[in-house]
Amino acid sequence: MTESNGSVSPDHQHSASLPDWEKRFRAPRVSLPDWAEDAPHRSLFVSNATGTYELYAWDRSTGAQRQVTDRPNGTTDGVLSPDGTWVWWFDDKDGDEFGVWRRQPFEGGPDEPATPGLEPSYPAGLALGRDGRTAVVGRSTDEEGTTIHLARQGEEPVVIYRHRESAGVGDLSHDGTLIAVEHTEHGDAMHAALRVLDRAGATVAELDDTKGGAVELGLEVLGFAPVDGDPRLLIGHQRRGRWEPLVWDVRTGAETELAVDLPGDVSAEWYPDGTGLLIVHSFEARSELFRYDLAGGKLERVPTPAGTVSGATARPDGTVEFLWSSAAEPPAVRSTAGGVVLDPPGMRSPGSVPVEDVWVEGPGGRIHALVQKPAGATGPLPTVFDIHGGPTWHDSDAFAAGPAAWVDHGYAVVRVNYRGSTGYGRAWTDALKHRVGLIELEDIEAVRAWAVASGLADPARLILTGGSWGGYLTLLGVGTQPQSWALGIAAVPVADYVTAYHDEMEALKAMDRTLLGGTPEEVPERFEASSPLTYVEQVKAPVYISAGVNDPRCPIRQIDNYVKRLEARGATHEVYRYDAGHGSLVVDERIKQVRLELDFARRYVDGPVDAVTVAG
Question: E-assigned strands of 495-579?
Answer without folding.
Answer: 543-548, 573-578
